What does this fold into?
Amino acid sequence: MVRRAALFLLWCLAAGAAPAAECRLALVLAIDVSSSVDDGEDRLQRGGLAAALIAPEVQRAFLAGNLPVALAAYEWSGRYNQSLLLDWRLIEGPGDLLVAAEAIGLSKRSHNDFPTAMGYALGFGANLLRRAPACLFRTLDMAGDGENNEGFRPAEAYAAFPFAGVVVNGLVINGADFEGEVELIEFYRSEVLRGPGAFLEVADGFEDYERAMRRKLERELSPRAIGALPEGRRAPG
It folds into this structure.
């Protein structure tokens, strides 16, 4: 009996020593600025993401629960062409979302003539998550309008970079014909989505980007989407 009480006391001390989480979710948003995205499409994408962040339903999703969400965003294209748009910020109220939306909406495109190096983009996101605040869950969002066509593929990125415990969701921007759309969706489902509860959202062109982003943010900020499925399974897109 004494031994059992001592073990229980040690467990309590160990639990008390564990660092408390600062946030419930560390969320990284990655937008595609490769050469397949023209200037008008980039403005729709950047403005659509900014508008989605301050939509009432998205604000409610961000601010639900007892812990805040940590948010960061970057743009990506070629092997060494990733630029931070928003460094880590705790979203603790509508004002924080407004600041994040303005930073993204007013940002200027850094590159426009490089191919789609998704493996490198995923590696950048993994390293960004490594210095995120201490959160209960971590999610990386990859949005794009094309398949990887430069450098290593997503599977190699997942093997080489720190992706343990990270969920990767996707947002496909359909700007091609039906055959191209099917191939791109299959690429995201088979090679990009990763982790428990991972899912895919599809935008019908860049004009539909804001709606698709609102829907995706609502879904992934909900407790069920944050991580309910066993490791290795993927939710249908």
About this structure: Residues 21-137+146-170+192-226 form a domain with the Rossmann fold fold (CATH 3.40.50.410). Residues 1-18, 227-237 have pLDDT under 50 and may be disordered. The chain is about 45% helix and 20% strand. The first strand starts at residue 23 and ends at 32.
